[in-house]
Amino acid sequence: MAVGYLVTVVLAVTITVFCLVRIRGPRPLFFFSYRLGLVFNEMPLVAIYGLVASTALAFAEGDIATGADRVAVGAAAVSAAGLAVVARRGMRTAPVVGLALDEALGAGTATRRRPPLARILLRPFLRRRGDVKRVGNLSYGDAGRRNLLDVYHHRARPEGGSVLIHFHGGHYDQGRKNTQSLPLLYRLASQGWVCISANYRLRPAFSHPDHLIDAKKVIAWARAHAHEYGADPAAAVFVSGSSAGGHMAALAALTPGEPAYQPGFEDADTSVTGVIALNGYLGVYFDGDPASSPVNLVRADAPPFLIAHGDLDELVDTENPKALVTALRSVSTSPVVYVELPGGHHAFDLFHSFRFEALIDGIEDFTAWVKAHT
To answer: Does 286 have pLDDT greater than 70?
Structure first.
């Protein structure tokens, strides 16, 4: 028995199961499944590459000699087939996103694009681009490293760009800038946008509304300084976030100019042009304060929203974002795009994958529509 090959196959089978189904069990099992799933559900082809290479090596070295070895090869084949299903789910994202855009914004909104196959197939985890410069660790507040932000802009600094602000996830008690949604930030920056990724104060030392106050400080900073990196001083400002960051983005968008959340900068313009919430928790905060739930803050003049959520999200059931979608559509005069991603887990925005690249295409179409109609 080729022990090394067997270990590889067992790991591949485990990864496949974690990608195909939503695991909710004992904490150690959940943690293990979540970590493997968030990587390989977006990069199943990497697992297939490793499985094929390991199988070829085992045959080349003559390690496939017994019945047990052949069973392992069969398990490897089944695992590869399962990973192909995972990849196929990701490839189905483009039409799903297109349908959601056309239904919410009007037929013909979605633009069909060719996926960047080289990035997806060969370097899914390399997010940087040569035409984009990152300016790191700029201060927007007095909370040290938790009040630092990064700016991403085209090296040529073309003038007149729009602004995208992103807030990271992490349950409000962990996480940092320059880790999430980087394919989105780099893509838009390469097209002349000025993109910002910001840290903010975390639990347990800080709680609501401290995070929201930080979010508004970032918006105010962007309106005051983004033109230094090529943005139009009167540019459209979109706010986005992943997981807890999506919660922050929604709250900020629904409380523009609210003095209680802008201590010391009450007169700053903290309105936004649109919202992009990715795998977001969009309900009440940990303390149960009803005012901390975006659902309870919907308003007629809310900006347009794009909310994207995986149908296999392990941390946040789809009923959570759907509640905000329903509330917004019942009150707001602006459109709300809801995209439920087939096979999507939590944190689907980390790598260049078929799923996230198709969603980024949709985000481009969404922002273009909003700018044209605002």
So the answer is: yes
Supply the pTM of this predicted model.
0.96
Q: Of the candidates 305, 237, 330, which has an alpha carbon nearest to the alpha carbon of residue 100?
A: 305
Instruction: Look at 35-39, 316-320, 367-371 and tell me which has the smallest mean pLDDT.
Output: 35-39
Burial class (CB in 10 A: 0-12, 13-18, 19+), 374: exposed
- Asked if 272 contacts 240 with a C-beta cutoff of 8 angstroms, the reply is no
What per-residue confidence (pLDDT) applies to 69?
Answer: 87
Average pLDDT over residues 11-34: 89
Strand, helix or coil for residue 109: coil
Q: What is the mean pLDDT of residues 276-291?
A: 96
Higher pLDDT, 130 or 63: 130
CA dihedral (63, 67, 70, 72) positive or negative = negative
Dihedral angle sign, alpha carbons of residues 43, 165, 185, 274: positive
Judge if the upstream peptide bond of residue 183 is cis by omega within 30 degrees of 0: no
Q: If you write DSSP's letter for every residue of 293-349 in order, what string do you get?
A: -GGGG--TTPPPEEEEEETT-SSS-THHHHHHHHHHHHH-SS-EEEEEETT--S---
pLDDT digits (tens, 9 = 90+) for 302-337: 999 999 999 999 999 999 999 999 999 999 999 999
| Residue 346 known to be catalytic | yes
Confidence of residue 1 (pLDDT cuts 50, 70, 90): low
Instruction: Pick the catalytic residue from 345, 346, 352, 361.
Output: 346
Average pLDDT, the chain: 95
Expressed in angstroms, the distance from the first to the final Cα of the chain is 66
* Alpha-carbon gap, residue 348 to 230, rounded angstroms: 29
Cβ distance 143 to 214 under 8 Å?
yes
Q: For residue 263, what are its two tokens?
A: 């201590």
CA distance 209 to 286: 11
Please provide residue 237's backbone torsions phi and psi, each rounded to the nearest 5 degrees: -120, 110
At 188, the amino acid letter reads L
Catalytic residue among 243, 332, 334, 353: 243
Check 63, 210, 313, 349 and give the catalytic one: 313
* Order of strands across the sheet that contains 148-154: 132-139, 148-154, 194-198, 163-167, 237-242, 274-278, 305-310, 336-341
State the DSSP code for 281.
Answer: -
